[in-house]
Amino acid sequence: MIPYTLEEISDIVGGRLAGRPSPENPVTDVVIDSRSAGRGSLFAALPGTRTDGHAYVGTALAAGAAGALVQHVPEDVTGPVIVVPDVEKALWTLASSYRKRFSGSVYGITGSVGKTTTKEMIAAVLGTRWNVLKTEKNLNNDLGVPLTLFRLAPEHEAAVVEMGISDFGEMTQLAKMVQPTHAVYTVIGTAHLAKLRDRQGVLRAKTEMLSFLPSDGTVFINGDDALLRGFSYRNRPISYGLGAENDLIASDIVYASDATSCVFRGFGKKFSVRIPAYGKHMVYAALAAAAAGLAAGLSPEEICTGICRYESVGRRASVWKAGGITLVDDCYNANPESLRAAIDSLAVLPCRRRVCILGDMLELGENREALHYDSGRYAAEQGVQLLLAAGDVSRFTARGAREAGACVRYYENKEKLIADLPNCLQEGDAILVKASHGMAFETISEAIKERFAKAPAEEPEQGGSAAEPVP
After folding, report:
1. Which is it for strands 318-322 and 269-275: parallel, antiparallel or unpaired?
2. Beta-strand (E) ranges in 147-303?
3. How crowded is the C-beta side of 172, counted as CA atoms within 13 Å?
4. What whole-number distance in Å separates Cα of residue 163 and Cα of residue 40?
5. Tens digits of residue pLDDT in 19-46
6. d(CA 249, CA 3)
7. N or C: which end of the chain has fewer CB within 10 A?
8. How many Å apart are CA 275 and CA 285, to the nearest integer?
9. String of b and e for 241-254 (b: at least 16 CB within 10 Å)?
10. Model-level pTM?
11. Across the chain, what does the average pLDDT equal?
12. What is the pLDDT of residue 454?
């Protein structure tokens, strides 16, 4: 972070500076956890429902923090603090001001599915030529975004910022801070419908970002998404996808459990790509990165090098093989679109039997039961032979799969599902585990790993012949 004095920050956020700041200890980073505070930190004392950051202001200052951002001066605190009406809003104002110090390209990444994967892929591609700052993990909300921006340093030449929302107006607030020079859209799906109501609402909320793009900015869109393709853009859109009408297309796709290969065509170029991860969704992320790279003047060789450097984040379609099974651990989050993409990817894995272990997809609004039912039917129609489900709404997933012909077991909770795993899974299975993050289905993935880790690894037979269904 380019240093600020506390006086400068106080002026920017319209606060009142109390205490005596040290000119030898300017602000060089911003933290919201007092345990991360040290020399040069500005500790933002955020009030919370379970704990109030104001209780830790003294701790942060004792650790060497340059100062704190507070809504009131805590008792027994005499060190330098900036008093503001709202700490979070002051962070937003400061982040917006700090962003103006950066003159490089900023790519704002959003969509209902694949934001983090696309962010990582674009950063890897651009990083072959430039020093790139990217969002850490998935810190993409109204606190994660400003913390990302505060990490911008003089050596950075570009930034890739993930932007996640769940309600109208939130993207406007994020975009005010990020001030993107380019926008990247993955998919407009059925996520956060409790507030956004339907896919048109999702589109309207996500495209709030476009009002903040400069006139020469570029919008990269998944052209296979009908809503994105049909939207009227003020800026020049570049489309990517599998359809022939896109500016950049992927063809000749070959899937394996550890990699995906394909051919990219567009921008007057044709080149082969190897993606070090499996699945259809990875092709879209690589396409978005390639489109951004080609538009920025990178060569196909640089783009392929960047894509090969991609590393997954968290439990996103992580593939684990042992004991004769292939486990696709995709527990980070779920909505109907990401689940369909995961099922599509499972369908191309060589195995004796395809198994889905599914939990509730949260925040889908009043249509959640039908969306779960349709997801279950889709799984069965795509060749899933055994479906295990747990969760209140997942009973509808189970019903849809059963009525479409799959063998199904439904459990009241994931503990009962875990207990029954020895009776359900067998050598040769390809197993997808997926649910919204709040369902904590990673415990199921770990239970599967524990059961099969000690067994000798064997490659499953090629082909899709089904084993005997579990009764």
Report:
1. unpaired
2. 158-162, 182-185, 218-222, 236-241, 248-255, 260-266, 269-275
3. 5
4. 27
5. 999 999 999 999 999 999 999 999 999 9
6. 44
7. C
8. 10
9. bbeeebbbbbeebe
10. 0.82
11. 92
12. 67
